[in-house]
């Protein structure tokens, strides 16, 4: 009897600590409830990738068709940030200054403003309560054409990339695969090509992340993003930075990416 009580006490303590760690990640695509925690725990135990830094095999028909041009992104300096969770899925250190996140948000918003025939800003299909960048042309329509969304809590982003570009990003130290991006049954939660891009920590790193976002545009729309000065010139009104995005929270009972 005593060993059983001891085991139950240990299990209860470990569950409490794990649940507390889940809550500490903040709001995201799963309700911050014990029910939400149990669903995420089930997915983590039975479906999460063993190594999110290992790229998936590239289908033969997609070889040499990536959208990140050679040398477009420089290797990320410093070690990778620590990342936890599934939904929420967040980095827990190397958080950028507020002005850098504001610059990132403004750069994404400005892309949509400068090219209204290509993009729109709407509520993220994955986060549900945060703004996301969407492509009006959808060759790969997962997430209703969502290109990316950024997390106000840590500055990281989620987006969908060409398999070759995922390999490039991973090798450059700029991101990792989402824990549920294994395809098959898990595609009901996120696309197989769904990745986290680490938070840029300076304006120079924001420019690198914008290159990765443009590669995501290519994968979602099916065509390389080519800047069009004439279209930009039609939208020369002063750009006003958006207000600080509010925290993301999905009230659904189902677990999704965030």
Instruction: Determine the N-to-C terminus distance.
Output: 43 Å
Uncertain ranges: 236-255
H and E string: HHEEHEEEEHEEHH
Number of helices: 6
Strand content: 5-15%
Model description:
The protein is of the alpha+beta class. Helix content is 33%, strand content 12%. The chain is built from six helices and eight strands; from the N terminus they run ααββαββββαββαα. The chain has helices at residues 2-24, 34-46, 98-114, 163-171, 203-221, 229-233, and strands spanning 83-85, 89-91, 119-123, 131-135, 146-150, 157-160, 175-177, 194-197. Strands 3-4-5-6-8-7 form a six-stranded antiparallel sheet. A two-stranded antiparallel sheet has the order 1-2. A hairpin with a 3-residue loop joins strand 1 and strand 2 (89-91). It is globular. Mean pLDDT is 85; it is low at 236-255.
């Amino acid at each position: 009897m005593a060993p059983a009580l001891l085991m139950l006490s240990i299990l209860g303590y470990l569950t409490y600590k794990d649940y507390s760690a889940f809550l500490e990640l903040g709001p995201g695509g799963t309700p911050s409830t014990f029910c939400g925690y149990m669903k995420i725990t089930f997915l983590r135990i039975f479906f999460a990738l063993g190594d999110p830094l290992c790229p998936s095999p590239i289908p033969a028909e997609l070889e040499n068709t990536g959208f990140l041009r050679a040398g477009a992104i420089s290797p990320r300096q410093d070690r990778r940030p620590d990342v936890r969770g599934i939904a929420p899925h967040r980095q827990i250190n190397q958080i950028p200054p507020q002005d850098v996140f504001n610059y990132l948000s403004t750069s994404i918003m400005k892309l949509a403003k400068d090219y209204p025939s290509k993009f729109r800003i709407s509520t993220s299909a994955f986060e549900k309560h945060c703004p996301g960048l969407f492509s009006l042309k959808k060759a790969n329509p997962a997430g209703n054409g969502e290109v990316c969304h950024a997390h106000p809590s840590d500055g990281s982003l989620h987006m969908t990339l060409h398999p070759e570009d995922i390999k490039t990003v991973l090798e450059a130290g700029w991101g990792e695969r989402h824990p549920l991006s294994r395809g098959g049954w898990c595609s009901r939660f996120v696309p197989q090509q769904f990745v986290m891009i680490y938070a840029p920590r300076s304006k120079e790193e924001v420019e690198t992340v914008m290159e990765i976002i443009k590669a995501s545009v290519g994968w979602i729309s099916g065509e390389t993003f080519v800047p069009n000065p004439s279209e930009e010139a039609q939208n020369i009104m002063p750009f006003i930075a958006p207000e600080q995005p509010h925290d993301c929270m999905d009230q659904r009972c189902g677990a999704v990416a965030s």
